[in-house]
Amino acid sequence: MKEKIDNFLTGVVKCTFILIPFLILGMVWIDPVLFGKILATDAAVILLLCFFSVSK
Asked: pTM score > 0.70 for this model?
């Protein structure tokens, strides 16, 4: 079960890293202020993911 979760998380992370540049460009283009808030949230989420992946 743990292996399935690890594989799923790895897939999610890969997809996220592929999509991030497009999301960032789109957000900056559409709404810079909203982008700032989203970037802060994303940074927090990414830090949490890194923390959990290191601590397991």
From this structure: no
